[in-house]
Structures are given as structure tokens and as C-alpha cells.
Design a protein that fits this description.
Nucleotidyltransferase, domain 5; 20% strand; seven-stranded mixed sheet
Length: 489
Amino acid sequence: MKRILAFDYGASSGRAIVGSFDGNKLSLEEVHRFQNEPLMMGKTFTWDFPRLLFELKAGIAKAQSKGYDISSMGIDTWGVDFGLLSSKDELLGNPTHYRDSQTDDMIELAQSIMPKERIYAETGIAFQKFNTLYQLLAMTRNGSETLKAADRLLFMPDLMNFFLTGVKACEYTIASTSQMYDSVKGSWAYDLMNKLGIRTDILGEVVPSGTKIGGLSDAVCKELGVKSIPVIAVAEHDTGSAVAAVPFKNTKGAYISSGTWSLLGAEIKKPVINESTLSFNYTNEGGAFGTIRLLKNIMGLWISQECRRYWIKKGENLSFDELEEGAKAATPFASIINVDAPEFFEPGHMPEKVVEFCRRTGQKVPETKGEIVRCIMESLALKYRMAIEELEKIVGYKIPVLHIVGGGCKEKTLCRFTAEAIDRPVVAGPVEATAIGNLAVQLISLGEAKNIKEARAIISDSFEKKDYFPDPSKKAQWDDAYEKLQKLL
């Protein structure tokens, strides 16, 4: 039995999962779960990196305490965020959270220096205000002393790997999310960064997914009382890992990595950078083993998660299942929101924001929690339809099936709504796609699977999937609601 360890860090929680592979099937055992709670430090919204590193070490210790001989480990996290190291390898403060307000107006500033088309041509990455490019531009323009003192930039999973191994590596999929990497040339977009006045000397060499970068250092092993474990730079961007786990049977199928964000796209061999991808705001991020994730960021479950957090703070501790039941009982298509509207990006008072959007756009105002949740779910499904239609125009063929992987698989109502909205089958699963994809890359790196195709076959045989099909009797209702959404944009 081959045992490997995956750490998967999400925007609100993380976990350590041991994968056991018997040569045919892969099984999972969660050995450690923890909260990821960002914090305000003065005026800056930051990640609590010391806590995240503490939980990483705790997960390693727990896995080995079970007596497992761990063959390797890998870490994946969200994209774009980073830490800065001094010349003495000291961390210069907690990494800033991508939802911090420092990047407000930075896209506009960048485009005043270099045309939008030129930026996109060099990187193929969609314009999102939280991209690393705009974080560094903001720090540069604000005269950040931290940036001036920096010797090396490491993205979140690379930073964690450094504090385990002492090796400063920069993995391809996580680097590609920054809007600072030229996926066509396969190098940093130096010309772009120089034009914007951003330092390039803090960037390291980019290594491919699956690279064995080192092992746990002697100091870490002594601290934890464990044996050294080889550390593999997996597909370190969590969406890169999730897509590696999609059990494609039709190569023309699309996927959604569904969680706080919904990342909808197709896996292709080369970047597509043209007027259509630019106008639709599609991004070309790196995938495992040199593939490209042609995808679009959609707000995802963030809005409903924030609503639930708000209600809990008010003393109404409703479960997701209870909210889903309320949504099912609510009147269909009573109101629609644009889930990607700017007001839904930042945390706080989310139910009030949904209500205000509906009021401002002259729609029926949702009154109950069920009505609010149904509004969000139907609106998400409709936005998926829009993104799929855009994707079909880009790739030039009809997408026959949509795979939904990740935590959103558990949202049965959303999966059903999605099949009905896009009028094609939806295959939901695996739920633990990010951790599974992390493990899959490790299996390939260790020689236990020949390639990503074989790894996906193992995944398909190992984990449950559920099929959803459109209901022809509801097509006209969804078409009407889609027209309504288009008028709101």
C-alpha cells in the first residue's frame, strides 16, 4: 500500500488527507482539519501565516503518528497571494489577502501605462483586481518598505514548502495565476513588469508540476519528531489540482471547480489569446503537466456562504441542508442577481446586498432565507450557462457535458439547476477533487501512474459520481430567466 499526503488550503479552511493506493484504487483518510481565518492587521487584510504553518506541521505529525510510511507530500492553495522573504530568509510580514482593498483602481492604473490588449497578449490572464500583478503594482506605488526589503517572492504553497525544506521553488500552475507569466514563451513577462515599474529580481525559476523539490529539513524533523518526507511541487494552484482530478471521458467536456469560486472552463494544450477570450474575460492558467486551463472566474458559493455566516452571527445557526430545503420550497425565478456584481465581492451583510440588488433592479424583493438562497442558486446556474456559451464560441464546438468537481458537488439543488439551465448533462464528482488531484500528481511523480490519463482512470474507478439531466418541461422557464439575466448585465 503506497501512502501519500496532501495538504489542501482553501479560503476558509484546510485539511491534511492521506491517500492510500493499492495499485488499482485510491482511498482517502482525513487526518487533520483546521480553520483558515484571515485577520485585519491595522488597515490591511492578511492571512494568518504562522497559524497556517502551525497547522501544516500538525498535519504532518498526525499522519506519521498513525504509523504510516509516507512516500511523499504536496501542498495546494488558492492562487495569486504571496509572501516576501528578506536576504536572510526571514518572512517580511503576513501575506496580504487577495480581498484587501489595496488593489482598488490598480487595473485602471496599469492600463493607463500599457494598453489592456498588450497586457492580455503577454499573459493571456483575465483581468481580476486581486491578481498578483496589481498587488505588486499597489505596493510599488505606495512605496512599500516591505517590498523594498524583499529578496524573494514565493507564492503561498511555495512559501510553505520553503519553511519545510529550505528550498525556494516556484511551481508552474501557481505562477501562472499571477498575470505576470507569459504562458506562450514559458517565462516571466519581464517587459510588462518593467513597464509597470515592478521589480523582477525577486522572482525565481519556475518548475513543472510534479517536480520533487526536496525533503523535510533536519530542523523540521527534529521539531516534529518525524522522519523526513519527500516534498513534491504538485499542481499547487487548487484549481489546477481540482482539474487534474476531473474524470473526463469526452475530451470536449467542460468543468467547474466549484467552491468559494466557480472556475468554469476546458482543458486545452495551448493558450488561446485573442479578441474573443479578451472580451469574455477568459483566462489561460497553467494546468498539470503543461496543459492550459482555459477558464472563467465566477463568484461561486461565496455569496451563499457569506449569507449563512451573517445569519449565524445574528444567532440563527441554520445548516446548509436547512437552507437548501428552504430554497427548494421558494417560488422559482422570482428574482435574479448578477453574481459577479462588484458589491458581492467583499464580505459583510450579504443578505442585505442581495435584497438591495433586487430592489434596485425593480424585481420582487426576496423576504425569506429560502427565497434569498434560491435567488443565488438560480442566478449562479444562469451565469454558468452564459460562460458555457462564451466558451463554445472560443473553442468552436458544442460542449456535450459539464463536470462539476469540488465542494459544490454536495449542493444537489445547484447541480440540478445547472443541468436545467445549460440544457445538457452534468456529472458531479468527485467532491474532494482538489486533494485527489494533488495526490494524483504525486502518484505520477512517484511512477505509480504513467500519466494524467491513467491517473484519471484510477480516480474514476475510485470515487462516486452522480449524473444530473435537464428537465425538458422547464426549458422555457430557464430561457426566460436567462433573458432576464442578460438585461441585468
